[in-house]
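ok so dumb question maybe but i'm new to this and my supervisor (M.) told me to 'just get the structure for Kelch motif family protein' and walked off. so i did the thing. is this what she meant?? sequence i used:
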Amino acid sequence: MAIHKEQVLSKVNEKIHGQDEKAFGRIAKVVESCIQIDCQQQDTSQTIDKQTSQGQESSQDLDVIMLDEEKLKPIEEIQQRKEVELNGFFQFQKNCVWYLQIGQPIKQIAQIPNLALCKVVPISRVACLVIGGAFDQSSSKVFNSVRQITVDGQISFKAPMNLGRSTFGCSLSKEFHAILVAGGNVGQVQSTSRCEIYDIQKDLWTELPELNEEKCSISICITPSCHAYAFGGLQRQDRSIKLSNSIERLDLQQWQSKQSSNWQLLSVVLPIEGVDFGNIIRRNAETGQDEIIIFGGWSREQLKRVFMLTNNDQDCIERVGLMDIENQHQIDAMSDKDFFLVSGCQISDKQHGFDFVLGNSNLFAFDHYKITFSRISL
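this is what came out, is it supposed to look like this??
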């Protein structure tokens, strides 16, 4: 299965219907830039040696790693890091890790038997992390292991999570070089509210405050203002299952400075209960405020609705508002239904105002100017 430039442009053009040549031109330039990336400029220091001696799975009953607070990076220092650069997508399907680069054939880079419900997060142009998961779909046995896999198939193990889990919320912050995981399944019918954050450069997991609700399949977002959001999720207690529409928020800067900071359950809720929503941060050019675009997901069926979470004052919860853009006819819904297992992994072209984001089945181009999605078939 190959994705070529001509196919990408053709599919985007179908969505535009020839009515907006400027938008098509911007996407064309983005595709051109993705195809022309010089792989020789990649940082070879990211390449790792294969370590087969560490091939044993880490399970949830391993001792919790004692954290050295002196190793924790201050938020101010983390904010000075250069943004993580990505030029491809990683996906886990059928016990295999796949690598997709726009304009290139999709390729299998690794096989991991007896693993399901994990999360795959890119951490550079040449590597990804395969985090947690379970032995099978039942989640009767969950793992806290973290594998680093390069595009040429080299595998090594990184520091494990403090808690083994599957179907957890997961988001990459390219700005802060961090990965946040929240909730998830810790047993066959047991969910958790525990959260932790991973410093990619320090290879260090740190416990965060717990969510207000125990749930899995949460959508997580980390904003440039150092706030983490948790949307929706699935609550599992004994044999009962309940979809959530709640929104929680955590001030990471207050937490890191050891001030009192916990997840706050916001009064505003999503217009629909669901799991595995996608999200993208959009800066409003007029107000200078960040807006969270929430899209897709699953709620007894796959979704294509689009919402916008606005926050005009990061310190005032009452001023948080949520708009169902589809119903207000300010923006079209996504052209196709899809759900998103990991957030923050989009390939960005800030010059042309586009993000590419990969769902479970489709590749989408998001136009920051028009707040619209165009599907690019795989």
